[in-house]
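Sequence design from tokenized structure. All designs in this work follow the same two-part layout: the structure record, then the generated sequence. An example of the structure record is given first.
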């Protein structure tokens, strides 16, 4: 069923779904309904959602149930995150969300073919599983996680591939934030096209 679901997109392995405040990136501070899809083939060592990696651990949920949760919440936007959402066909979910006039936001590393209809794409590229070439021009936001000094070069490689109006963010990796923050601050002071993204939801104590 799960392989079929990847292609059809009518059922998704849902890790969690909740109405909260966007904590990072361009839309920080805005209310949104979050849909966390299980399954990831990237496997970053510092990932703070490792519980979402194995899709087999999470119940396959029909998109009608997901949409029902959004309706009940009263949200006007939905953030689809993971795991890696693009493992699955996102067309059916997005078609229904657009029919409801819900804004659709995607958080992805971009390593799979893009599906879905998106008002905003946040591309967070990973070295060990680089993005598909076609997603760069569609990203509204480039968010690169900074854990050590080598990550700045990766950020610049990806900056050269996104559109000129793409918003550029460097985000200190949470478990290394005290160590890496001074470096990130200095880098942004010297490369003013970048901004700093903080995981403010962790400071606020919300999901």
């Amino acid at each position: 069923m799960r392989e079929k679901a990847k292609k059809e997109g009518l059922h998704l392995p849902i890790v969690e779904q909740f109405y909260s405040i966007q904590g990072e990136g361009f839309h920080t501070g805005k209310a949104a309904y979050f849909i966390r899809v299980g399954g990831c083939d990237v496997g970053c060592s510092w990932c703070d959602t490792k519980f979402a990696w194995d899709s087999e651990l999470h119940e396959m949920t029909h998109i009608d149930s997901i949409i029902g949760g959004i309706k009940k919440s009263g949200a006007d936007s939905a953030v689809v995150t993971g795991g890696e959402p693009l493992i699955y066909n996102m067309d059916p979910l997005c078609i229904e969300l657009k029919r409801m006039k819900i804004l659709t936001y995607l958080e992805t590393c971009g390593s799979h073919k893009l599906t879905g209809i998106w008002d905003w794409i946040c591309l967070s590229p990973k070295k060990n599983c680089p993005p598909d070439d076609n997603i760069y021009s569609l990203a509204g936001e480039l968010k690169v996680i900074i854990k050590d000094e080598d990550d700045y070069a990766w950020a610049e490689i990806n900056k050269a591939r996104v559109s000129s109006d793409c918003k550029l963010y460097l985000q200190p990796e949470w478990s290394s934030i005290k160590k890496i923050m001074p470096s990130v601050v200095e880098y942004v002071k010297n490369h003013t096209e970048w901004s700093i993204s903080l995981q403010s939801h962790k400071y606020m104590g919300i999901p």
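The chain has six helices and nine strands. We note this feature because it recurs in several other targets discussed in the main text.
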